Amino acid sequence: RTRGLLHPAYLSTLHASRSSLHRGVVHQIVRKASGFPGPTDRVIGQPRPETHPHLLKHGEVTPGITKREYSDRRRRLVQSLPPASVLLVPSAPEIIMSNDIPYIFRQNTNFLYLTGFQEPDAMLALTNIPNPSLMKHGEFAVAYNHDPGSFLFVRDRVAAREIWDGPRAGPDDAHFIFGTQESYSSSQIYDRLGRLVDKAERVFFSSSSPSWTQHRSKLIDNIPKVEHKLSNYDETIEAMRVVKSPAELSLMKHAGDVAGTAFRRTIRAVKRDGLKTESEIAAHLEFHCKMQGAQRLGFPPVVAAGPNALTLHYISNTDVLHRSSISPLVLVDVGAEVDGYNSDITRVFPVSGRFTEPQRRVYNAVLEVNMKCIELCRSSIGISLAGIQSVSVGLIKEALKKLGIRFNSDNTEYLRYFPHNVTHWLGMDLHDTPKISDLELVPGMVVTIEPGIYIPLDDVNAPEELRGIGVRIEDDVAVTESSPLVLSSAAPKTIEDIEAAMNTE
Fold first, then answer.
1. Do 392 and 415 form a contact (C-beta atoms < 8 A)?
2. Within 10 Å of residue 54's Cβ, how many Cβ atoms?
3. DSSP string, 58-79
4. Given 92, 144, 194, 482, which is the most exposed site by the fewest CB atoms within 10 A?
5. 36 CB-contact burial (10 Å; exposed 0-12 / middle 13-18 / buried 19+)
6. What share of the chain is helix, strand, coil (3-state, %, to 5)?
7. Cα-flanking dihedrals φ and ψ of residue 470, to 5°?
8. Tell me: the pLDDT tens digits for 202-239?
């Protein structure tokens, strides 16, 4: 039977109809029988279990996340749509740094969350319209039908470009690899979507990618009636993303371990190797994160020696560590992005390896606030981010009083010493899901806890020995029912642990 199916005359007929053949099982038979690599063994523009078994397990699309989980995310989102709706989620575009040199590509978060696809210039279309298909008259296929109502548009395979930029997934194989119902060339987005949009009562979109503005203009030019149907759907997507799955929590714990271990190794090098500048510390942090598998840092690291720590987002990292005979503190705020998920950790350490008494007082005051706020990250309490912020302000005011700092606790004078929020969402982005605000915490959410005290150099209301000290202690915390899980525990935090890490061979 197999011999008959692959008879040369049969293959010839299939090849002749290739121009009108939709990508599907029949197409894969042709490719295999003709000696071309099929989707299960071809290198594409990102790792796959078949080509990179050292990075992905069987069934995974990206490390730690399976094709089934991506499909479940899309299905849940489709179920949230009003009847007769279409949702369009564009990928990130390629951004050029200068001339023909691109920045290192980072995929749009909403698109990556729903597809796992890591190439630019793509689009995901989802719909709950019954029996959807974007095939045209005369096209046919034995469809994979992984995920009805999902369509992926990707760049064509162009040999001349692949020589320079590497292999692409291509529209022939993308639906098989990533589990959508059908896949097409990005050049056909507006042509293929026309009939689907005509049937839709609402067309939702994600505007989180900078490419959406251009897509919107082209959609309206090609399908004028779409304009009055358009509505933003980012808040609903973010509401899904804010609660992490067990697989996501595992990835975030790993990202915390990577950054925490990098911090531990770096502060040991300050003593062992005699690092003398902020930039040397920043280089060590990035090196140790990437050596453990991070694709990049989650953000430009803050390495702020002495009074530089009074600048919250100090990222120039150009100063020397010592400017006086007194050993300064160095504030380090660093995060690792590992397989699409971020960590965000802040610690403070003394250049000498030993805290002075004034430094200890400020550090322990902040540490106490940190630990009390972490205990609030339990769903049984029924608290929101705003609630944690309110508690932290009260705790910081008490800490300032104990430190002997004079201020009016009845108004906002405390902001001089604690000018930022104590928490934010964390996930695929550093400041994750920004459209989600005052929700009560539920298991699976991940937040940062980052109290700080920053005492200006010229503050006459603070004891002189405390002036110029800036301390922030930040942890990543997964919300549970009763016992918060600290994802950043690999980074030493108590004074005893930090001093031991710096001074132990």
1. no
2. 6
3. TTEEETTEEHHHHHHHHHHHHH
4. 482
5. exposed
6. 40, 15, 45
7. -125, 125
8. 999 999 999 999 999 998 998 888 889 999 999 999 99
Q: Could you give the angle at the alpha carbon of 297 between the alpha carbons of 329 and 102, nearest 5°?
A: 135
Q: Which DSSP letter does residue 425 get?
A: B
Please give the model's pTM, rounded to 2 decimal places.
0.90
Token pair recorded at residue 148: 């009805």
Task: Report the Cα 290 to chain-centroid distance in Å.
Answer: 16
Phi, psi values for residue 415, rounded to 5°: -60, -20
Please classify residue 345 by burial: count the beta carbons closer than 10 Å to its beta carbon, then call 0-12 exposed, 13-18 middle and 19+ buried.
buried
158: Cβ contacts below 8 Å, ≥ 6 apart: 168
- Average pLDDT of span 454-465: 96
The Cα–Cα gap between 88 and 86 comes to 7
- Pull the structure tokens for residue 20: 């009108």
422 DSSP assignment: S
What the block records as the tokens of 203 is 């067309």
DSSP string, 81-128: SPSSEEEEEE-PPP-EEETTEEPPP---HHHHHHH----SS-EEEEE-
